[in-house]
Amino acid sequence: MTELQLVGPRPAISEIDPASLAAWLTARGEPAYRATQVLAGAHRPDAAGFADLTDLPGPLRAALADAFRFSTIVDSHVIGADAGMTAKAVHELEDGQRIESVLMRYVAHGAMAERTTICISSQAGCAVNCPFCATGQAGFGRQLTPGEIVDQVLHWHRPPWNALGDAKAGHYNIVFMGMGEPLNNADRVFAAVRLLNDPDRLGIGARHITVSTSGVVPGMDRMIEGLPQVNLAISLHAASDELRDELVPINRKWPIAEVIAAGRRFAARTGRRVSLEYVMIDGLNDTPEQADGLIEVARGWRSHLNLIPLNPTPGSKWSGTPAAGIERFVRRLRDGGVSVTVRDTRGREIDAACGQLHAQLSGRSLRDAREAAALTATS
Ligand code: SAH
Ligand code: SF4
Question: Which whole number is the average pLDDT over 252-271?
Fold first, then answer.
């Protein structure tokens, strides 16, 4: 209870534990059942602030707003693409750090229902330093708290987006593919996943959540115990250690054989299919030799390969593999018995790859960026 009155930012409602909330309510003479009511209200798609929780008495709503943060995000700049099907936000946090999240909507297609994917960040920046990634180039800022991770999902769940509808029923996915290496912030990421799962909050099923990692082996093993129903994606990007040492520098610590062994353990222990992510860079990792190496590592276990054409960062010495090259690569892999798909490249026009919009807005206030965007839209 006392920790709620300590210096520092007010606790975030998205990460407060129910016992502390109940204690705070009881100290104010409120019945303890209000804790569930407050949590349910804070996760309603129509609530933009405590003032909107009109099933609570007015003075209590005001007291909640004084004691807790409805969101840890203090400002957001959102831009749209793909005819409104994609929206990307740069969020500013209390201490001025900025992170990104992306909303992608997909229309119904054949047997596939309409669905929504929300891509969120786990760290401000990233220390892994992959040379093709804008986040890696910008360096590491700090770890995100569980509340800061959950609040990115709440940003899109709340007005005006209401992207999840009734989160418990929806066709949606939450992917940790924004800024940061989630397994370098494993405790807080695990806590955030549990908050997202909580039926008294958003109630998002673990099977709708994917953690993407550059290959932090101990973290992958912790997922087997701690998050066995969450999907695992491994950012592979190369099939030889020589090339992967350059593209994903953490490979010098955990080389391909160890990362794949951890992926196989995860698949064997959880019964879940593991995604292997592979950014295709023209003339670098799209060669027949790399394809043959990939066949070796991807075949014979429950894995699925996702190919993603590189979205070049400004000033990049690399470009994405052209369509014909991707096709050739896919054919060789399929002939080799690998299950493979080519991921669509959402939001290219808004620099939707990891960390790019953030880099573009560096040094500008989000308000200026928003006003400039409004001018462009109306002119
Ligand atoms: N750090 C984690 C998760 C965040 S990065 C990881 O690396 O897995 C999420 C995905 O975006 C990774 O697969 C990453 O390789 C990819 N990515 C980063 N920069 C990219 C770019 N310029 N073009 C295409 N994909 C990119
Ligand atoms: Fe970090 Fe992932 Fe970017 Fe590599 S690709 S620098 S691990 S965010």
Answer: 98
100 is catalytic: yes
- pTM, to two decimals: 0.92
Kindly give the distance from the C-alpha atom of residue 300 to the centroid of ligand 2, in angstroms, as a whole number: 27
pLDDT tens track for 205-214: 999 999 999 9
The active-site residue out of 15, 30, 100, 181 is 100
pLDDT digits (tens, 9 = 90+) for 33-49: 999 999 999 999 999 99
| Surface-to-core class of residue 241, CB atoms within 10 Å of its CB (0-12 exposed, 13-18 middle, 19+ buried) | middle
Q: Which of 126, 130, 133, 354 is catalytic?
A: 354
Tokens for 329, please give them: 């690569």
Peptide bond into 160 cis (omega under 30): yes
CA-closest candidate to residue 59, choices 31, 20, 30: 30
Determine the Cα–Cα distance for residues 13 and 35; give it in Å rounded to an integer.
Answer: 11
- Residue among 121, 130, 177 to mutate when testing ligand 1 (max atoms within 8 A of CB): 177
- Residue of 348, 339, 328, 225 lying closest to 283 (CA atoms): 328
177 lines ligand 1 (CB under 6 A): yes
Count of alpha carbons within 13 Å of 211, Cβ hemisphere only? 31
Residue 299: the pLDDT is: 94
Mutate which of 118, 120, 235, 317 to test ligand 1's pocket (most atoms within 8 Å of Cβ)? 235
In this prediction, residue 349 carries a pLDDT of 55
Dist. CA 163–CA 176, nearest whole Å: 17
Length of the chain: 379
